[in-house]
Write a structure and sequence with these properties.
The chain contains 14 helices and five strands. The chain is of the alpha/beta class and about 375 residues long. The structure holds zinc ion.
Length: about 375
Amino acid sequence: MSEERPAPELFAGVVGQEEAVAALRAAAVNPVHAYLFRGPAGNGGLAAAYGFAAALLCPDGGCGRCPTCLAALAGTDPDLHVIRRSGASISIADVRQVVSLAQRRPLHSKRQVIVVLDVHLAALRAPALLKTLEEPPGDTVFVLMTDEVIPELVTVASRSVEIAFPPVPRDVLVRWLISTGVAPDMAAVVADSSGGNPERARVTVEDPDVAARVELWTSVPDELTASGMTAAALTRRVLESADRAVEPLRAAHAREIETLSAAAKEMGERGLPGRKEIQDQHQREERRFRTDALRAGLGVLARAYRGRVVAAAATGSVGVGDEDVRSAAAAVGLITETAEALPRNPNEALLLQSLFVRLASLAV
Ligand SMILES: [Zn+2]
């Protein structure tokens, strides 16, 4: 095999994650037999797994152009196996499939790659997986993908090289969104609402309600009055808009449960095994998404206050003095405080209402 590192194009589909990509390009030259990709789905792990597989299967170490590279990148090479759970968690049948694949010889490459998704949902099956990792078949490389390293997976992790896929930094996401044709203002909002997750950002871009949310938050400074009623009404409207923001994700989750239930029925199961666990996970994701949507809205609001001072100063209009700049800075400070308190405060309505009352009293 060539000592050259694989072509960077193999990882063109991975947004951000420079460290992970650098580690994988180095690892591809002389791979060990198991890698644990840690990070939530959508952070780029799967695209990286396909690029890594191409590098491992290509006769030239990942040229990025040959049929093997292209097939691996598309997830269709016969020596690349992607194991998706057949139910809500990884079943013993899924693990058996992994074990039996691992015993096969590669079909046309010098090795084969087995990618196992959602390994964090394999808690009970971890010992069986571990057995395969402890008796490594010579020409198989495993890529285990996990949201997090749960206690049951610690031993599996210790037999693997861990590659982290952390949240993508905001400015990287913004640049990427703009490069895909998203308007800069929208890109900033979408990046703020996606928790550093490019896949979630993609979902948010397609949400027709995003522009309306941006408008609602931008209009807050104009709508504020000294009346507590106004603050209450605005609070209701921004909370409703956050609820609507979660709807596409909720619908996707409902579809996922439906698909899994149908698959379970086909396998002769009554009901969906592990239903509660997966619903709990969905609820956690939905809560996080909703909080992110509110925080993104607060980001828009902070930019609106900054923008007002900048715009007034630029036109040299009526009395833009130190006072206005100080008030705007105070507003931004209050907004930032609220955004930070939001994830750990159970009473969002109270928090937002109190913010709006205080902003009104600043009269920027
Ligand atoms: Zn190639």
